[in-house]
Amino acid sequence: MVTINLVRFQSRICFSFVQRCGQRRHQYATTAAKTPEIFDLVCVGGGPAGLSLLAALRATRATSDLKVALVESQDLGRIKTWRPPPDQYSNRASSLTPASVRFLEEIGAWRHIQASRMQPYSEMQVWDGITGSRISFDWNSPGRTAQPEPQQKTIAYMTENLNLSAALLARLDEIGGTTILDKTKVEGISLSEGIEDLDLSSWPVVEVSGGRRLAARLLVGADGGNSPVRTFAGIESRGWDYHRDGVVATVRLEGNGWGGDEVRTAYQRFLPTGPVALLPLPNGLSTLVWSTTPTRAAHLRTLSLVDFAAMVNAAFRLSPVDLTFMHTQDQGQADEVAWREKHTHVDPTLIPQRAVSVQQGSVASFPLRMRHADTYVGERVILVGDAAHTIHPLAGQGLNQGQGDVQNLVQTLGFALEHGQDIGTQLSLENYNSERYSANNMLIGVVDKLHKLYSASSGPLVPLRSWGLSAVNATNPLKAFLMRQAAGNER
After folding, report:
1. Cβ contacts of residue 200 below 8 Å, gap of 6+?
2. CB-side exposure of 236: number of CA atoms within 13 Å?
3. Computed from CA positions of residues 232, 237, 243, 246, in that sequence, does the dihedral angle turn out positive or negative?
4. Can you tell me whether residue 25 is helix, strand or coil?
5. At a CB cut-off of 8 Å and minimum separation 6, what does 376 contact?
6. Which are the contacts of 471, defined by CB distance < 8 A and separation ≥ 6?
7. How high is the mean pLDDT of the chain?
8. Using one digit for the tens of pLDDT, what is the confidence trace for 414-445?
């Protein structure tokens, strides 16, 4: 009988030996389903975080020999063949920072993005909906001491989540070597009982629909806020609901923007009920993200598309008092907003162009909450993306946090492999846990404080926050620093 010490059972194990062991087991087993398939890494969840992780592992020399598998309940084949009409855009779009784009370039996925459905923007206007104080972010601000690098002229890149997922799947197909189980649900996760001569008692085994069982040296939870992997690991996730809903829609504006075709701008106005943002998409379209109370969100969803477009215009032009009144009207917002705009002075060059239509079927909403896992690492379990943290969308950093997790995790696993470590042990994963937890916790805290700060509609906080915003806007080096941080550039 052959005895294998797990401490020395490294991830560069010859899997032909394991397969022979499994075959001997299969010969004596009553059904093949009782013998789990052995993988170095099994990822549950085929969203952007999970797909990025697998693509990065396969594209990185140090981790390219790992035997990896993906379990996803949705039909990924539909995403691979995703080719929507050029004038139709999903309401699930995200802003990718230049740092996230560089990472996607490094792993070979960015070249598979449908460039015609991706929109970079180089300016951002943010202002207080009560006092009107504002801050303008752009790389060509007067007083900058140095010109930006060419890649720094973009603040972020807007693209649909489906566009990113399709690009990552194309890259995985290009590289090969990944076992993809889509249209497959996780039926349960338990600890392995071992395979004949192999003591795998600490390895998680994922039982999936169809009877297959996957034993994982490292199980990755990229399975969202209600993560079954996190539950299996016994990791608590703490936080609170904001009692706000995020209303999303795809909106067509008048023209391409005040800066013409070459300069696209994102807009965000902080209202007492939450921020409202319009982020540019190609072809004169923008994606709307409006954080508001559940009651108002439900009301917005009942409006005709004409009245909904009028409410979008009102959100960037009218006072909070006027907006409150508009939410009491069952219909007729288009006429009411047109009349009120005649008596409201705004500088049209500092606000988005008028919304002229809303894409049919694009209006939706979802509850906003903050959650953060107590740790990202368990015994042979690790969490990435929304399984580890959920953030308020006002900063547009949720997807970028997940990409940051993936990039750091791949580096951590590569280091472990190069130094002969078992990639499933908490010791090997501690660097990922310490670095990503602190970075994400800081960002979650800042965004949470911003939400609370701008939720105040009266009192001393209102003039203080206005003064602070104006002071930052007048300090170009500080603005440049904030822009570099937001873009993922730490220099």
Report:
1. 6, 38, 192, 193, 194, 215
2. 3
3. negative
4. helix
5. 382, 383, 384, 388, 405, 432, 433, 436, 437
6. none
7. 87
8. 999 999 999 999 999 999 999 999 999 999 99
Q: For residue 360, what are the contacts with CB-CB under 8 A and spacing of at least 6? A: 305
Give the amino acid at 260. Answer: G
pLDDT band for position 194 (cuts 50, 70, 90): low
* Cα-Cα end-to-end distance for the chain: 57
Q: How do the residues of the chain divide into helix, strand and coil, expressed in percent and rounded to 5? A: 40, 25, 35
CA dist., res. 453 & res. 128, Å (int): 11
Question: How long a stretch of residues is the chain?
Answer: 491
Whether residue 59 has pLDDT greater than 90: yes
Strands 265-271 and 123-128, how do they pair? parallel
Rg (CA), the chain: 25
| pLDDT band with cut points at 50, 70 and 90 for residue 489 | low
Task: Provide the 10 A C-beta neighbour count for residue 17.
Answer: 12
pLDDT tens column, 341-365: 999 999 988 999 999 999 999 999 9
Rounded CA-CA distance 375/385 in Å is 13
Task: Give 442-484 pLDDT, tens digit per residue.
Answer: 999 999 998 888 887 777 888 888 888 788 777 777 667 677 7
Residues pairing with 378 in the sheet = 381
Q: What is the Cα–Cα distance from 474 to 477, expressed in whole angstroms?
A: 9
Q: For the residues 223-230, what does the mean pLDDT come to?
A: 96
- Whether 355 and 338 have beta carbons less than 8 Å apart is answered as no
What pLDDT is stored for residue 148 in this prediction?
47
- Sequence-distant (6+) residues with CB within 8 A of 208 are 71, 181, 184, 185, 186, 187, 214
How many C-alpha atoms does 345 have within 13 Å on its Cβ side? 1
Supply 394's token pair. 């006002």
Backbone angles phi, psi at 17, to 5 degrees: -65, -45
- Residue in 205, 206, 186 with CA at minimum distance from that of residue 195: 205
CB atoms within 10 A of CB 459: 8
Cα–Cα separations (whole angstroms), residue 475 to 77, 103, 480: 50, 30, 9
Q: What angle do CA 389, 392, 394 make, to 5 degrees?
A: 140
